[in-house]
């Protein structure tokens, strides 16, 4: 992940609803959640939720899958790994490969 992608991810997470959505989707795991269920759980209106989901998707932190007429959303663990790797890029004396096991442990394989 480069600096601009990291800034997009941080910007996406810097708003309370989007941070709540991302954390909720991490909790939901492999099953993900529909946009309606996310909105109901967080008490957010549909049009507001759609905007926030689009911002998170553009930032690479969530992904979606169409299921008939609805869309299911998931935390994108590769996006999370990329953000964590960016943050730890210069750790260990500039040897980020030493931090990779920590990153893999923090961002589950779901």
UniProtKB/TrEMBL annotation:
Species per Swiss-Prot/TrEMBL record: Sulfitobacter pontiacus
Gene Ontology terms, MF aspect: DNA binding; DNA-binding transcription factor activity
HTH arsR-type domain boundaries: 1-95
Keyword match Signal: no
Source species taxonomy: Bacteria, Pseudomonadati, Pseudomonadota, Alphaproteobacteria, Rhodobacterales
PROSITE patterns membership: HTH_ARSR_2
UniProt keyword Zinc, yes or no: no
Protein keywords: DNA-binding, Transcription, Transcription regulation
Name of this protein: HTH arsR-type domain-containing protein
